[in-house]
Amino acid sequence: MKKIQYKKDIKASAEKVYNTMLGMETIKTYEQWTAEFNPTSTYEGSWEKGSKIYFVGTDENGKRGGMVSEIADNVPFQFVSIRHYGILDGENEITEGPEVEKWAGSLENYDLQEHNGVTTLTVETDVADDYLDYFNTTWPKALNRLKELAEK
User: Any coiled-coil ranges, and where (predicted)?
Assistant: First the structure.
Protein backbone atom coordinates (compact mmCIF):
# COMPACT_ATOMS: atom_id res chain seq x y z
CA MET A 1 0.00 0.00 0.00
CA LYS A 2 1.18 3.50 -0.82
CA LYS A 3 0.33 6.83 0.83
CA ILE A 4 -0.69 9.47 -1.70
CA GLN A 5 -1.45 13.14 -1.15
CA TYR A 6 -3.39 15.78 -3.05
CA LYS A 7 -3.81 19.49 -2.28
CA LYS A 8 -6.35 22.01 -3.51
CA ASP A 9 -6.69 25.71 -2.69
CA ILE A 10 -10.35 26.68 -2.47
CA LYS A 11 -11.55 30.29 -2.23
CA ALA A 12 -14.01 29.62 0.59
CA SER A 13 -13.96 29.32 4.36
CA ALA A 14 -12.90 26.05 5.95
CA GLU A 15 -16.46 25.78 7.28
CA LYS A 16 -17.93 26.05 3.77
CA VAL A 17 -15.44 23.53 2.33
CA TYR A 18 -16.06 21.08 5.19
CA ASN A 19 -19.86 21.35 4.92
CA THR A 20 -19.77 20.99 1.12
CA MET A 21 -17.31 18.10 1.21
CA LEU A 22 -19.25 16.06 3.77
CA GLY A 23 -22.72 17.04 2.56
CA MET A 24 -23.59 18.51 5.95
CA GLU A 25 -26.27 20.88 4.63
CA THR A 26 -27.38 18.60 1.80
CA ILE A 27 -25.98 15.19 0.89
CA LYS A 28 -26.18 16.31 -2.74
CA THR A 29 -22.92 18.29 -2.48
CA TYR A 30 -21.08 15.15 -1.30
CA GLU A 31 -22.67 13.13 -4.11
CA GLN A 32 -21.76 15.74 -6.73
CA TRP A 33 -18.02 15.82 -6.09
CA THR A 34 -17.68 12.09 -5.39
CA ALA A 35 -19.54 11.31 -8.63
CA GLU A 36 -16.06 11.48 -10.21
CA PHE A 37 -15.37 8.13 -8.49
CA ASN A 38 -18.80 6.63 -9.18
CA PRO A 39 -21.83 8.47 -10.62
CA THR A 40 -24.05 6.86 -7.94
CA SER A 41 -21.70 7.60 -5.03
CA THR A 42 -23.29 8.41 -1.67
CA TYR A 43 -22.88 7.56 1.99
CA GLU A 44 -25.03 6.03 4.70
CA GLY A 45 -24.27 6.77 8.32
CA SER A 46 -22.84 9.57 10.40
CA TRP A 47 -19.67 11.69 10.26
CA GLU A 48 -19.49 11.61 14.07
CA LYS A 49 -16.20 10.34 15.52
CA GLY A 50 -16.41 6.59 16.18
CA SER A 51 -19.42 6.08 13.89
CA LYS A 52 -19.70 3.38 11.25
CA ILE A 53 -20.29 4.76 7.77
CA TYR A 54 -20.87 3.11 4.39
CA PHE A 55 -19.51 4.69 1.21
CA VAL A 56 -21.76 3.15 -1.41
CA GLY A 57 -22.67 3.19 -5.04
CA THR A 58 -24.00 0.81 -7.65
CA ASP A 59 -22.06 -0.87 -10.42
CA GLU A 60 -23.01 -1.04 -14.10
CA ASN A 61 -25.40 -3.93 -13.30
CA GLY A 62 -27.14 -1.98 -10.51
CA LYS A 63 -25.50 -4.02 -7.73
CA ARG A 64 -24.82 -2.11 -4.52
CA GLY A 65 -21.26 -2.08 -3.20
CA GLY A 66 -18.70 0.05 -1.43
CA MET A 67 -16.57 0.48 1.65
CA VAL A 68 -17.34 -0.25 5.29
CA SER A 69 -15.58 2.40 7.33
CA GLU A 70 -15.33 4.17 10.66
CA ILE A 71 -14.90 7.87 11.34
CA ALA A 72 -11.58 7.69 13.19
CA ASP A 73 -11.61 11.43 13.92
CA ASN A 74 -13.65 14.50 13.06
CA VAL A 75 -12.69 18.00 14.16
CA PRO A 76 -15.27 20.23 12.42
CA PHE A 77 -13.79 22.60 9.82
CA GLN A 78 -10.25 21.26 10.46
CA PHE A 79 -9.73 17.51 10.08
CA VAL A 80 -11.55 14.30 9.16
CA SER A 81 -10.04 10.82 9.28
CA ILE A 82 -11.76 7.75 7.84
CA ARG A 83 -10.54 4.22 8.56
CA HIS A 84 -11.63 1.65 5.98
CA TYR A 85 -12.01 -1.88 7.30
CA GLY A 86 -14.33 -3.76 4.99
CA ILE A 87 -16.25 -3.88 1.76
CA LEU A 88 -19.95 -3.92 1.10
CA ASP A 89 -21.15 -6.56 -1.34
CA GLY A 90 -24.87 -6.02 -1.84
CA GLU A 91 -26.18 -6.02 1.73
CA ASN A 92 -23.27 -8.09 3.08
CA GLU A 93 -20.36 -6.64 5.03
CA ILE A 94 -17.10 -8.44 4.27
CA THR A 95 -14.44 -7.66 6.85
CA GLU A 96 -11.89 -10.41 6.16
CA GLY A 97 -10.41 -12.27 3.23
CA PRO A 98 -8.11 -11.44 0.31
CA GLU A 99 -10.20 -8.56 -1.14
CA VAL A 100 -10.36 -6.81 2.23
CA GLU A 101 -6.72 -7.42 3.18
CA LYS A 102 -5.62 -5.01 0.41
CA TRP A 103 -7.48 -2.17 2.17
CA ALA A 104 -7.98 -3.15 5.81
CA GLY A 105 -6.88 -0.40 8.17
CA SER A 106 -6.22 2.12 5.40
CA LEU A 107 -6.79 5.76 6.30
CA GLU A 108 -8.23 8.61 4.29
CA ASN A 109 -7.44 11.96 5.93
CA TYR A 110 -8.71 15.43 5.09
CA ASP A 111 -6.88 18.44 6.55
CA LEU A 112 -8.35 21.93 6.13
CA GLN A 113 -6.21 25.05 6.70
CA GLU A 114 -7.80 28.47 6.14
CA HIS A 115 -5.72 31.61 5.49
CA ASN A 116 -7.19 34.92 4.26
CA GLY A 117 -10.38 33.37 2.92
CA VAL A 118 -8.62 30.53 1.09
CA THR A 119 -8.80 26.99 2.44
CA THR A 120 -6.06 24.55 1.53
CA LEU A 121 -7.55 21.07 1.55
CA THR A 122 -4.96 18.31 1.84
CA VAL A 123 -6.13 14.76 1.20
CA GLU A 124 -3.84 11.94 2.25
CA THR A 125 -4.90 8.38 1.62
CA ASP A 126 -3.51 4.86 1.66
CA VAL A 127 -3.96 3.12 -1.69
CA ALA A 128 -3.45 -0.44 -2.87
CA ASP A 129 -0.92 -0.49 -5.72
CA ASP A 130 -3.46 -1.67 -8.30
CA TYR A 131 -5.61 1.45 -7.68
CA LEU A 132 -2.78 3.99 -7.89
CA ASP A 133 -3.30 5.04 -11.52
CA TYR A 134 -7.07 5.26 -11.04
CA PHE A 135 -6.75 7.52 -7.98
CA ASN A 136 -4.03 9.69 -9.55
CA THR A 137 -6.45 10.37 -12.41
CA THR A 138 -9.69 10.61 -10.43
CA TRP A 139 -8.75 12.49 -7.22
CA PRO A 140 -7.69 15.69 -9.04
CA LYS A 141 -11.01 15.71 -10.97
CA ALA A 142 -12.99 15.16 -7.75
CA LEU A 143 -11.14 17.96 -5.95
CA ASN A 144 -11.72 20.33 -8.87
CA ARG A 145 -15.45 19.55 -8.64
CA LEU A 146 -15.42 20.11 -4.86
CA LYS A 147 -13.67 23.45 -5.44
CA GLU A 148 -16.41 24.51 -7.91
CA LEU A 149 -19.15 23.58 -5.46
CA ALA A 150 -17.57 25.25 -2.42
CA GLU A 151 -16.76 28.45 -4.30
CA LYS A 152 -20.37 28.98 -5.43
Answer: none
Q: Determine the pLDDT at residue 151.
A: 97
Contact, 124 vs 1, CB < 8 A?
no
Q: What is the pTM of this model?
A: 0.91
Is the confidence at residue 102, as pLDDT, over 80?
Answer: no
pLDDT for residue 140 is more than 90: yes
Q: Which residues of 51-68 are buried (b: 16+ CB within 10 A; e: fewer)?
A: eebbbbbeeeeeeebbbb
**What is the rounded CA–CA span in Å between residue 46 and residue 7?**
25
Question: What torsion, rounded to 10 degrees, do the Cα atoms 55, 48, 132, 29 define?
Answer: 60
Q: Domains of the chain, with CATH numbers?
A: 2-151 (3.30.530.20)
